[in-house]
Write a structure and sequence with these properties.
The chain is mostly helical. The protein has 2 domains: 125 residues, no CATH class; 313 residues, Serine Threonine Protein Phosphatase 5, Tetratricopeptide repeat (Alpha Horseshoe). Helices cover 68% and strands 0% of the residues. The chain contains 20 helices and no strands. The chain is globular. The relative contact order is 0.07. About 5% of the residues have low confidence.
Length: 450
């Protein structure tokens, strides 16, 4: 095991935190300072992360490159590399031995003809996966489990890495509808399970900005919900379709989809009605229909008060207090920003406090309430809260909020989160001369490029 680099760790712990001078700098803050120093002094975009600083402090890496060492010395006030525990390793980085060569030769022999096949082709099945001749309850349970797993993955990591996997599962599931005989009593559960999986695939595509793919898979999910006569799944799918339309700039169509979902609101649960009212508020806000947006938020609050979590469908289990605060907070964020834009109110001047206070409180509650399982939602709400604070409050407080949100966003693959970060960078532009804001803008550039 490597000996820890205590000199570097102690030097970092003597450095005040840029966000909280009463605390010492974290590994992430030190990485940000190094990256900012490199850009300022060498016009170079550094890629230093908290993980790399950790490797340095654990002694796993003893000799970073010359520019990094220069930056560390400048920031930590060291005259020489050895004052920070940096030294060249005397061990060779890699030595190819006879044993290595023999092992590689053995592997090639063991693989035989397969060794000559390209990697991509090795991943293709030689035998097609056959659909069952008759649908069993266990097949439907398996589909539900698959839909749940992909939905959970999407909430936590975004869909960027597994979109192809969920599409493959969806293609197989649709094959069950065509190729397998289904007893009449299992018809509705089968279509509902396939519809849930289609919704999971569609939302991943939406989050990745594969919008046409998302629209087709949402249409499949809605068709399955109608075939199953499942009003709950139908409401969820239409709500997500509305969110996509609103995000893509067609708030009017989003409002139409919400109204369509509310045709028989009496058949829906309070959580479903609260979700739809939240989407309705976001559409009204985008359309500049202020009073109607405000009313929709109030109606969403009323519905939320009557939620009984045990009665909700599996795909609605995510809709808790944090989600409700985030959805309604996003709508009120738009009211503040649209009001500022249409009235020409500059940052720092009086703004309609009815919306500003509520938006800030709700977004803060969302950030505080979201668990690690919903890190994408926490990141997006945190970025919105930082943007709101940057536009209307203290830029350095906004930079602190934004820094935590960018850290969250770095763990997921979400084009929506990327665009929200770009929006935050624009709000931060007037304050770019302040060090915490400059560091935040640098971190956003790095996160978006990554």
């Amino acid at each position: 095991m490597s000996d820890p680099n205590l000199q570097l760790q102690q030097a970092r712990e003597r450095l005040p935190s840029p966000a909280d001078p009463g605390e010492h700098a974290s590994r992430q803050e030190l990485a940000d300072l190094v990256n900012a120093w490199l850009f300022e002094n060498h016009q170079r975009h550094g890629g230093l992360t908290q993980e790399y600083v950790g490797k340095l402090e654990r002694g796993e890496v003893r000799w970073p490159n010359a520019h990094y060492r220069e930056a560390f010395r400048a920031i930590l006030g060291a005259e020489r590399d050895r004052d920070l525990g940096f030294n060249r390793s005397r061990r060779a980085n890699s030595v190819v031995t006879v044993t290595d060569v023999d092992r590689k030769g053995f592997i090639r022999t063991a693989l035989g003809a397969a060794a000559a096949i390209p990697l991509a082709e090795l991943a293709l099945p030689a035998q097609a996966i056959a659909a069952p001749s008759v649908i069993q309850p266990s097949d439907i349970a398996e589909l539900r489990n698959i839909a749940h797993v992909f939905t959970t993955w999407d909430h936590t990591y975004g869909g960027g890495l597994v979109r192809e996997a969920v599409v493959g599962q969806l293609r197989f599931a649709v094959g069950l509808l065509k190729q397998s005989r289904c007893p009449s009593k299992l018809h509705a559960p089968l279509y509902a399970a396939v519809g849930w999986l289609a919704h999971a695939a569609a939302f991943m595509a939406f989050d990745a900005y594969a919008h046409e793919d998302a629209r087709r898979m949402f249409a499949l999910a809605l068709t399955c919900a109608e075939q199953a006569s499942d009003w709950h799944l139908r409401a969820k799918v239409l709500s997500s379709m509305a969110r996509q339309s609103i995000w893509c700039g067609d708030a009017d169509n989003g409002l139409t989809l919400v109204e369509f979902a509310m045709v028989r609101a009496d058949r829906l649960t309070p959580a479903e009605r609260a979700m739809l009212r939240g989407a309705q508020a976001r559409a009204f806000a985008k359309l500049g229909r202020t009073q109607e947006a405000w009313k929709a938020v109030a109606e969403a609050d009323t519905e939320y008060e009557h939620i009984r979590p045990g009665e909700e469908q599996p795909w609605m289990r995510y809709y808790d207090a944090a989600q409700h605060s985030g959805d309604t907070g996003h709508a009120l964020f738009d009211l503040v920003i649209i009001d500022r834009t249409t009235t020409g109110t500059p940052a720092g001047d009086a703004i309609d406090n009815r919306y500003l206070g509520e938006a800030s409180t709700r977004l803060a509650n969302a950030v505080a309430g979201h668990t690690p399982a919903y890190v994408r939602s926490r990141a997006i709400s945190g970025i919105k809260l930082a943007s709101l604070t940057m536009a209307t409050g203290d830029p350095e407080e906004a930079a602190s909020i934004g820094g935590r949100a960018v850290t969250d966003a770095g763990t997921v693959r979400s084009r929506r989160a990327q665009d929200d970060m770009k929006e935050l960078a624009k709000f931060a532009l007037p304050h770019k001369t302040r060090t915490p804001v400059a560091l935040l803008r640098h971190r956003i550039r790095e996160a978006v490029q990554t």
